[in-house]
Amino acid sequence: MAAKARGAFPLIVALAALTHVAGTAAAASVETSRDARIFELLDDDQNGNVSMMEFKNNQMLVFYILDRNKDLALTVDETFLPADVFASIAGTGGKIDTLEFLDIVDSAFKQADTNQDGLLERQEFVTLLNRVRNR
Predict the structure, then answer these.
(1) How far apart are CA 96 and CA 63, in angstroms?
(2) Which of 113, 94, 135 is nearest to 51 (CA)?
(3) If I label 21, which of 13, 37, 106, 134 is the partner at 20 to 30 A Cα–Cα?
(4) What is the Cα–Cα distance from 95 to 102, expressed in whole angstroms?
(5) Cα 86 to chain centroid, rounded
(6) Would you state the torsion angle of the CA atoms of residues 22, 74, 113, 43, taken in this order, to the nearest 10 degrees?
(7) Cβ-contact 38, 132 below 8 angstroms
(8) Contact present, 112 and 128 (Cβ < 8 Å)
(9) CA angle at residue 105 from 87 to 21, to 5 degrees?
C-alpha cells in the first residue's frame, strides 16, 4: 500500500493530463489552461473546491477514458506514466485494475489535501500537478 500511496500523485496527473506538453512558454500557458478546465470539470457544484465526493464521482469516468481497450485494467501505455512509477503501482500483475485504481485515487486526494480540510482548493490541485510534472 505504501508504494501505491507514493505512486498516487503521478497517476492522478497522468489521468488528468492525458496529453504530453513540451516545456515552452506557450506549452506552459496551454498546461495552465488545461489544468483550470480539469479543475472546473471536477468541481461539480462550481464552488471553487473539489470535495472527496466530487473527486470520487469522476474517478471511474477517468478510468474508462484511459482504458482504451476496455479490458477494465490499465497498462503502462494507457496511463502515460513512466515505466518505473507504473510498476510500483501495478505490482506483479503488470496492470492496474479498477479496485487498485480506486485505492490510488483516494490516496492521491488525501495527499493533495495539504490543509486537511477535506477539499482540494485550486492551488492544492495545481501544486499536485506541478509537483508531479517536475519529478
Answers:
(1) 10
(2) 113
(3) 106
(4) 14
(5) 13
(6) 80
(7) no
(8) yes
(9) 70
In angstroms, rounded to a whole number, what is the distance separating the alpha carbons of residues 130 and 92?
Answer: 29
* CATH code, 2-133: 1.10.238.10
C-alpha cell at 108: 492521491
Which DSSP category does 80 fall into? T
For residues 104 and 98, give the distance between their C-alpha atoms in angstroms, rounded to a whole number: 10
Confidence of residue 73 (pLDDT cuts 50, 70, 90): very high
Residues whose CB is less than 8 angstroms from the CB of residue 14 and which lie 6 or more positions away in sequence, other chains included? 79, 80, 81
Cell numbers 485505492: residue: 103
Cβ-proximal residues to 58 (8 Å cutoff; 6+ apart), any chain: 41, 42, 44
Nearest to 128 by CA among 115, 103, 45: 115
Q: Note the maximum CA span of the chain.
A: 41
Query: Do 109 and 89 contact (CB within 8 A), yes or no?
Result: no
Q: Which three cell numbers stand for residue 30?
A: 496551454
What pLDDT sits at residue 111?
A: 83
CB 39 within 8 A of CB 125: yes
Percent of the chain with pLDDT over 70: 75
